[in-house]
Amino acid sequence: MNAEPWLALLAGELRRQGLADPQVATVVADVRAHLRDSAEDPYRAFGAPERYAAAVAESLRGPASHARPVGPVRLQADGITKRYGRRQVLRDVNLTVRAGQIAAVVGANGCGKSTLLNICAGLISPDAGTVTVHGTLSHSPQDGGTAPYLLPDEHFALVGAGKGLTRDRSRTAGRARAGELGWQDVGATLAGQLSGGTRQKLNLVMSTLTEPDVLLLDEPYQGFDRGAYVNLWQQLWRLRDDGKAIVVVTHMLNELDQVDIVLDLTEANS
Ligand SMILES: Nc1ncnc2c1ncn2[C@@H]1O[C@H](COP(=O)(O)OP(=O)(O)OP(=O)(O)O)[C@@H](O)[C@H]1O
């Protein structure tokens, strides 16, 4: 659908909220890119423009004021630099996340968010810099990660087996996590035949099933409807309260006041 009328309303509301023109342009460009990539209806993805604008404005006014108890460092990325051929993607990026913290990695399309997550997950090497992980780690990539000819329960069993869980316990735990995301009818549909949003929920459940100390999530809400999106953040806040260190790549700026660290890679690389 044509998202431009919704984006025009958003821009007007952001200005009314007191954002400067460059900030408005950045927010609108990010949202436009997200809508283009996801092909989602803006009302479904972001809700009413005035409400989204109000939430973004509140996020940008400052980080969460409530002090939260945090634990030891779980993930430390120091001086991460990466180039692909001539293209410098990451330049001296630093990120420290402690137990009980959520870090949001934000920035324009192509600024290196997934690259940073892949480096933190150990999937690719940086040209310079180090990543130290204290504890177990799980990574939920932006796409892929599920096997099209396996059932959701079989995914749970495979992941659970890695942690020594029986098939039954894995299925029970997986279905419970799925239920928290509003996915109740985990049944006989192969992963390849699930809707995109439901497949993303499967990805997310697999990532959290083993109770990792560090959870890396790359745009985990893609294809989610509004209810599932809300459930996702509630699940992340619960995991944070349980002492997990979470890094989430997001284009959804309205939740930034609910995270502990914001790493803007567009700014970091400029
Ligand atoms: N294996 C690769 N080889 C060459 N270039 C790559 C490779 N992977 C990523 N890039 C490039 O590096 C840049 C950063 O990509 P990355 O996927 O990390 O960005 P991103 O911030 O996650 O983007 P988006 O918001 O669109 O998901 C892009 O220009 C991309 O084309």
From TrEMBL:
Signal peptide: none annotated. Residues 75-270 form the ABC transporter domain. CDD domains: ABC_DR_subfamily_A. Pfam families: ABC_tran. InterPro entries: AAA+_ATPase, ABC_transporter-like_ATP-bd, P-loop_NTPase. The keyword Signal does not apply. Gene3D superfamilies: P-loop containing nucleotide triphosphate hydrolases (3.40.50.300). The keyword Nucleus does not apply. Keywords: ATP-binding, Nucleotide-binding. This is ABC transporter domain-containing protein. It comes from Luedemannella flava.
